[in-house]
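Repro case for the chain-ordering regression, as requested:
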Amino acid sequence: MHGLVLRLTDYGESDQIASLFLREQGVISAIAKGIKRSKHRFPHHLEPFSVYTFSLSKKPTHRLYFIKAADPTEAFGEIADNIQKIALLHYTFELILTTVKEGEPHRELYDLIITAFRRLCAVDDLIPIRFYLEIHIMRLLGFTPDFEACLTCKQPVKRGEHNRFNPRRGGFLCEKCATGPEKALSFAVTAESSGILHYLKQCPLNAAPRIRISANARREIAALLGAFTTQQLEHTFKTLSFLNEVSL
Ligand SMILES: [Zn+2]
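-- result from build under test --
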């Protein structure tokens, strides 16, 4: 079965415990017994920049799977060589580890991440893929942001105009409705950022790397999507501040 290694913890002198994201089973915990000394059973180390074909077994009474073998089938070498891309990979992994329950399959989410990592290897600028991932991971987890209409008056949001975004409510507000406390809780969104968010929500992943994003819109969208994710999932992501530090 195909999967990614989201997290790896040393266990005793020769074992490691891994959180795996498998296409068919979702997130599972597994132990690689003897991985630190058996070159015969584990000719490769487990690491986050590869897709593996795992051979697993499990006793019905145990929560942990047993990794019998792990063969790398695809490597994301260009991610491993770039600190910004590494930071995005770890943020993506923290999002999955925080939200996906063990044993719940999420095939669409898995496919999105694999496709995004492949694209990420081929681009110099990771920001469009980063924003695409943030929007669509949240959508697949059931937290779709609303960029189409004002949350309060339901009027379509005019893309050529400035408006605001409320991360707690998960959508845009027109200037008329964003007053008082609503204004204090929301982020200003320029016309450029509004258009980019709209486009990224409905375009295919392959189209994302072609869009140009100004320095101002990068900061604006990163802040708004970061607040959206943090507030909707009620979790502070350690990997997000690092990602912002190295990529903005
Ligand atoms: Zn309104």
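Ordering looks correct now. The helical segments are 77-80, 83-99, 107-122, 127-140, 180-184, 191-202, 215-233, 238-247.
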